[in-house]
Specification:
single chain, 142 residues, mainly alpha, Serine Threonine Protein Phosphatase 5, Tetratricopeptide repeat, 2 domains, 6 helices, elongated, mitochondrion
Amino acid sequence: MLGAALRRCAVAATTWAGPQGLLHSAQTPGPAAAIQSVRCYSHGSHETDEAFDAPWVTYFNKPDIDAWELRKGINTLITYDLVPEPKTTDAALRARRRLNDFASTVRILEAVKDKCEQFPGNTDDNILPYLNKFSFIEYQAM
């Protein structure tokens, strides 16, 4: 497939070359000039939000997950250009609760807060339910 695309590019380049080579500005189209340009974009299936979130929820709900795996998962999830869904954040916070790691819990909440700042009014809606559920101190005091 790649070879065919390269051949098409080579044919297109040679058909637009002038009689004295590629460096001349005179362009005389050859017989293969009728070839349309080909875009090689991926036409794969579009992943839904549920299909994206399901592996993350499964990853964070593993009973034998350790602190390193959890940090790696959170760091990978935060690098994406998106705000984590509430169910993904809930699974990550529950995993932190199982590991009894308060400092990492605060880091997760801060990361979600930073991501939510891109969308005004979204921060409190996404973070406050977790603070109430896990009996944290007042959010503004953190």
